[in-house]
């Protein structure tokens, strides 16, 4: 049985911070299997923040750079998932293309990787229904994200409850063997493997059981409250850093970020100094350095202003290129349409082939 995390927010954040990388990170260390099929997707819920960047899309770019040519790579904008929280027509349309621009702005090559809109492929919903009929509601009810998002709400939708099955359909539609995920999605991938096993056992072996490629940087926490993860939905937007923000805006947010009263040294101590530790963690993630290396780099800093100026400079320089490219892409909507159309066509060719096999194996031929 899956165990629900009942730890307090503070204990949870300390656990994330206590498991960050302790050695420098080399993208070549990502474990890509021969002839792998890699799939991942991200919801179009607004411009990407620092956590999205370090926990997802930069790893996507790394995989494009280091994966063998025999590896198939598919990255989706999960716009069907986005409407578990209803959105207006114009808002959803804008968000979908902001997501495409954000993905491309990080340097992901859309010739190397298929970049597409999930909603363009009806096969996602079709496979979702078949897999839903093999998935127990008890299993879904134990999902920790369902528990956290629906707690105290009488209006939580069926879509919110069942979206992990659609997520499994997304992955299995491309017969994915590896899925880059953050640590908060590992339970969903466990469910995906369970569903694949159920289908293979009930009908015929059709789906491989995908494994995880974990992002090397653990969760980036809120700048204003380092007991919870950084989120686009935070009521205090000073807590969240976005890839597209101008340097002055980044500097202002870092200046107001929660740290502590100790000013003579800045050490990684998540239990006693969560705010400082969170910023050391994000610098570690951006620079691909170990915590110990970052501590050595900042050992000469002896007040909060110098420390925060250092963190600001690291973030501003990392986001300079993606921000400029994002702005350029958003000014060229015709180009974004071309990229999406090409990606949709390439993705559909794979999805149709998989669904034909699924239908035959399940008896729908």
UniProtKB/TrEMBL annotation:
Location(s), subcellular: Mitochondrion matrix
Pfam families listed in its UniProt record: tRNA-synt_1b
GO biological process per UniProt: mitochondrial tryptophanyl-tRNA aminoacylation
Keyword terms: Aminoacyl-tRNA synthetase, ATP-binding, Ligase, Nucleotide-binding, Protein biosynthesis
A single cellular component GO annotation: mitochondrial matrix
Top enzyme class: ligase
Single annotated GO MF: tryptophan-tRNA ligase activity
InterPro entries found in the cross-reference section: aa-tRNA-synth_I_CS, aa-tRNA-synth_Ic, Rossmann-like_a/b/a_fold, Trp-tRNA-ligase, Trp-tRNA_synthetase
Main location per the UniProt record: mitochondrion
EC number annotated for this UniProt entry: 6.1.1.2
NCBIfam families: trpS
Family, per entry: Belongs to the class-I aminoacyl-tRNA synthetase family.
Database matches in PANTHER family: TRYPTOPHAN--TRNA LIGASE, MITOCHONDRIAL
Name the UniProt record assigns to this protein: Tryptophan--tRNA ligase, mitochondrial
Organism in which the protein naturally occurs: Cyberlindnera fabianii
